[in-house]
């Protein structure tokens, strides 16, 4: 064998292995991170903790994050993984906080110009703050624990719902008393009172003071009005009382307990998917409640400036603006101008 030559039986030199590791290291690191995120996602799912998995699906250079980069964002703002630097991560975190609060469906988030990448109407677009430019398309995928349905009472309708609701992935808890202090209630909780009048008022009052997404009562129209009168006397305001759906369920001509349960279940699905109940009666109740609260309490109302976070007295506010049907109040003209330039930047704030 000539000098400087090596046959196939000789082991490769260290530089050969070193070069191989340098080439493979990014793929090794990405694969390891993906496994770590999947393991964490599994643990959080088992624990019933919500999170958002953000994945870069497309980019236009220059960007530091490339397709396949992922980050997992928890409700407390903790981030595991990597989705880009200071130009991308703050927006992703704010959007993750928003969809965890609101219960949104998956969607595509674009950082950069709207004229490149995938052309879809449902893309949420934010400007790229980096001076170097670039575009990132990030798929925002929220993961929530099963929504919780709390059934209060042991009527036939409650019994039927306890069986039907589990089929469409509601986690069901049935209580035979009015005390809700022993259960956890959040924005993904649905509460239905069906106690045949035994402790309707007490349970509903507690439910309406909670952040529950839906509060309903199985009752007649006359019984529902009596309950609303009680709630008013108990000190609840018009907007709180307007949250009560009574009688619960859609008017489909239901007669039997199973049919009534089916009508209530359809209503729960609508709230779960659309966030509201789409019928004229509910819209009118809410509209009247807003008017009553505005007329009765506007003198004492305090709003938060979405730009700087200062408290603004609504009655004497000099700077205000409307966006997407909502009125916002500002402490000064500068905050109002900043908001009007890019409302989305201030509508979604990270959890503290």
Question: Can you characterise this structure?
Answer:
The protein has 352 residues and is α/β, with parallel strands linked by helices. It has 3 domains: 17-143, no CATH class; 148-287, Rossmann fold (3-Layer(aba) Sandwich), CATH 3.40.50; 299-347, no CATH class. 39% of the residues lie in helices and 20% in strands. The strands form 4 sheets. The chain has a 6-stranded mixed beta sheet with strand order 3-2-1-6-4-5, sandwiched between helices. The protein has a 5-stranded parallel beta sheet with strand order 8-7-9-10-11, with helices on both faces. β14 (319-323) and β15 form a beta hairpin. α3 packs across α7 (257-274). It starts with 13 loop residues before the first helix and ends in a 5-residue tail after the last helix.
Query: Quaternary state, please?
Result: single chain
Count of the domains: 3
The main β sheet shows up as: 6 strands, mixed
The number of distinct β-strands equals: 15
Strand order of the largest sheet: 3-2-1-6-4-5
Q: What fold name stands as the CATH topology of the largest domain?
A: Rossmann fold
| N-to-C CA distance | 70 Å
Q: In percent terms, what proportion of residues is strand?
A: 15-25%
Overall CATH architecture of the largest domain: 3-Layer(aba) Sandwich
Overall pLDDT: 80
Q: Structural class per helix/strand content?
A: alpha/beta
How many DSSP helices? 10
Considering DSSP H and I runs of 4 or more, what fraction of the residues is helical? Answer: 25-40%
Overall body shape: globular
Q: What's the CATH class of the largest domain, please?
A: Alpha Beta
Q: What is the CATH superfamily classification of the largest domain?
A: NAD(P)-binding Rossmann-like Domain
Instruction: List the secondary-structure elements in sequence, H or E.
Output: HEEEHEEEEHEEHEHHEHHEEEEHH
Radius of gyration: 27 Å
Low-confidence stretches: 11-30, 289-299
């Amino acid at each position: 064998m000539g000098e400087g030559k090596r046959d196939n039986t000789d082991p490769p030199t260290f530089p050969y292995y070193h070069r191989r590791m340098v080439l493979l290291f990014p793929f090794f690191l990405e694969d390891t991170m993906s496994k770590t995120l999947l393991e964490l996602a599994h643990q959080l799912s088992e624990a019933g903790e919500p999170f958002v998995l953000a994945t870069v699906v497309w980019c236009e250079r220059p960007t530091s994050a490339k397709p396949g980069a992922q980050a997992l964002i928890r409700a407390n703002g903790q981030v595991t993984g990597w989705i880009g630097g200071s130009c991308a991560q703050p927006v992703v975190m704010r959007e993750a906080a928003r969809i965890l609060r609101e219960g949104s469906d998956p969607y595509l988030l674009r950082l950069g110009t709207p004229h490149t990448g995938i052309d879809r109407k449902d893309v949420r677009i934010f400007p790229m703050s980096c001076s170097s430019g670039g575009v990132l398309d990030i798929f925002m995928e929220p993961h929530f624990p099963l929504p919780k349905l709390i059934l209060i009472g042991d009527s036939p309708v409650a019994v039927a719902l306890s069986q039907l609701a589990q089929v469409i992935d509601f986690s069901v808890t049935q209580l035979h008393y009015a005390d809700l202090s022993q259960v956890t209630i959040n924005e993904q909780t649905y509460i239905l009172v069906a106690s045949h009048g035994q402790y309707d008022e007490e349970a509903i009052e507690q439910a309406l003071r909670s952040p529950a997404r839906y509060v309903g009562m199985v009752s007649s129209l006359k019984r529902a009005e009596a309950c609303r009168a009680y709630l008013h006397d108990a000190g609840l305001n018009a907007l709180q009382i307007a949250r009560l759906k009574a009688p619960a369920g859609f008017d489909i001509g239901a007669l039997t307990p199973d049919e009534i349960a089916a009508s209530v279940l359809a209503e729960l699905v609508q709230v779960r998917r659309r966030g509201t109940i789409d019928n004229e009666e509910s819209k009118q109740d809410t509209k009247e409640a807003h008017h009553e609260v505005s007329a009765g309490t506007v003198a004492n109302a305090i709003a938060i400036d979405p730009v700087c976070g200062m408290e603004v007295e609504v009655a004497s506010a000099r700077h205000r603006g409307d966006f997407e049907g909502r009125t916002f109040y500002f402490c000064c003209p500068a905050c109002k101008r900043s908001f009007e330039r890019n409302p989305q930047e201030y509508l979604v704030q990270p959890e503290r």
